[in-house]
Amino acid sequence: MNVLKPHLQSTVFTLLERNKSQRQIQRLTGIDRKTIRRYQAIFESEKSASANSPTVTTGSETAVTQTPPPPRPPATDDSSKTTTFNFARSASEPHRDWIEQQVRLRRNAQAIYQDLVDQFGFSASYESVKRFVRALRYIDPEQFDRLEFAPGE
Q: Which helix (H) or strand (E) holds 42?
C-alpha cells in the first residue's frame, strides 16, 4: 500500500473539510478515488474521535491545571546489551538529516525510500533504507513516563 506524501494528505483533508466530493478531489489532485475514500474514512474517524473526547468547558471553576512531572533522567547505558549500528557504512548516511526529519514525522521506511528516489535520485536498495530507519528508531525510542500513585490517590 502506497502512502500519500504529507502535503497531499493535508490537501485531501482540507478539501474534505470543505465538503468536496471524491470526484471533485480526484479532478483537482489526480489522486485515485479509492485512495481518497481511504483517507476520508481516516478523516471521519479522527473527526468523530475529537467530537467524542471529553473536554473541560472554558472558564470552569473546577478546571485544575496540572503540570506534567519533570522529565526522568535517562536510563544508565548498558552498552554490553545493545548492538550498535554502523551508520558510516550505510548508503543512507549522506541523507541522514532528511531521514531523521521524516522519522520524526512518523513516516514509514517505504515512503521515505520512495521520496529518496524521487527527490535525491537515491540508487541504493530499499533494504538499506529500512535498516537505517530501524536503527534510528531504536536509538530514539518514545519517552515512557512511569506514573506512581499512593494507594487511594
A: helix 33-52
**What whole-number distance in Å separates Cα of residue 128 and Cα of residue 101?**
17
Q: Give the model confidence (pLDDT) of 61-92 as tens digits.
A: 544 556 776 677 666 655 544 455 555 678 88
CB of 114 closer than 8 Å to CB of 76: no
Q: Angle 70-138-8 (CA atoms, 0-180°, nearest 5)?
A: 90
Could you tell me which of 80, 94, 82 has the C-alpha nearest to residue 138?
82
With beta carbons less than 8 A apart as the criterion, state whether 66 and 106 touch.
no
pTM above 0.70, yes or no: no
Could you tell me if 87 and 96 are in contact, meaning their C-beta atoms sit under 8 angstroms apart? yes
Nearest to 39, CA basis, from 12, 19, 76 = 12
